[in-house]
Design a protein that fits this description.
With 491 residues, the chain is α/β, with parallel strands linked by helices. It folds into 3 domains: 163 residues, Ribosomal Protein S5, domain 2, CATH 3.30.230; 212 residues, Rossmann fold, CATH 3.40.50; 75 residues, no CATH class. 37% of the residues lie in helices and 17% in strands. The protein is built from 22 helices and 16 strands. The strands form 5 sheets. A 5-stranded parallel beta sheet has the order 11-12-15-10-16. A 4-stranded mixed beta sheet has the order 1-2-4-3. A 3-stranded parallel beta sheet has the order 5-8-9. α5 links the parallel β8 and β9. The longest helix is centred in the last third of the chain and has 17 residues. The model has no long low-confidence stretch (mean pLDDT 91).
Amino acid sequence: MTQAVVASSTIVGVDAIAVEVQVDVSAGLPAFTIVGLGDAAVLEARDRVRAAMRASGYDFPNARVTVNLAPAPVRKHGTGFDLPIALGVLVATGQVPRSAGDAIAVGELALDGGVRPVPGLLAHAIAADRTGRPLLLSANALPTVSAVAGLSARPLTTLSALRQGLPDPGHTALADVNARADGPDLSEVHGQPAAKRALEIAAAGGLGVLFLGPPGAGKTMLARRLPGILPPLTPAEAIESAVVHSVAGLDVEPLLAGERPFRAPHHTASTAGLVGGGSPPRPGEASLAHNGVLFLDEVPEFSPAALQALRQPLEDGYLTLVRAEGRVRYPARFALVAAMNPCPCGFLGDLVRSCTCPPAAVDRYSARIGGPLMDRIDMTLRVDRIDPGSLLRPGQEESSQVVRERVCLARERARERECGAPAAAGAALLRACALDAVARRAVERAARVHRLSGRGVTRLLRVARTIADLGRVDRVSEEHVLEASCYRALS
């Protein structure tokens, strides 16, 4: 009887949990059994491992092979256990050196013995780096894990390469954090100075904004240009966002290059698709937009249940999903940008076309968003159609790069300030605003006129603080409060 133990890990939420792959090869009728609460993909590893070992020139033991994935109470899922199971069998039967089992192994096996990457490799790499052990993985995954600075990555192309023990550490160049892909530019938007100003404030403060107006006014066009005026992701933010995308099986290289995520789900998205869920739980669009932008076009057309599920992440910056099999937490700190028509036909308040909707239909349409969610949106702005002649005349519109420079300066002021508004609240936010008597009266007047809740007053102050930062002013004045209150009128 021979045994071997190989370290691996499984994804729970966006974290990699350590798993021991214990392999026992003993005399008896030939059998290959996997125990330890593995899902269907884990149990199917028996056929992939057997075929990959034979294709790589190894002998699969004609004996009773038992694989235990410990700890047993933790559910395991995915194809990442193919490689550690095969490695355990090879070590137990003496076909590769025992030193090959010293690494944390994660990878899927092809039937020809090739090693493929699996979703969540960045989370596995972070967990391996914490333990100080090398990570054995597919060579194709090296660019993904290159962002984990202290990791010793051991790239493996085929299973046959293990005959000489662990491969040498692999290295690849880290993506340029300052690199930016060419995207939609703000200079392409003609007119709409008030909407552009609101977009700049939202970018500087990480604030949410709702554009309301008739079809074709430019609401979607404006929203899609918000990522271009946001500063690049910091290295820490890039890792946070890339881990979520890695767990979801999406490309992480643009994030590691500093590009902020922009997610624009269709309005038919389910609640699980928007905030996460499923079995096993997977991150939703709100988490995939972490440190970036979540754009909800035609927001009243979304399911009310899906919209109300956004209330926690808008307030706390994370999502907690509780299911029968456990509790997972996903990061979800994003800037919400929403667009909607004022009524079902879209022309309520339009100066060119008349609305044909009865008043009850208008009320039902706007009520689909709900007051609690509207209270969490920092700014609301009406966007009306512009004169067709201005679309045909060349304009001198500011580019995204010019606006982004101002946004970066405003965010730098916020970081340098004690307590770091605009994310602060309560006493910390009041200290950051440093209101004088005139500005304080302006806040009280705006709160009464617009019937703001306590949350609404806090968000009003955050907008005013961001406007002051854009103006390079230390104290929030009456002028800043009045401008901020204009963005609460439609709420």
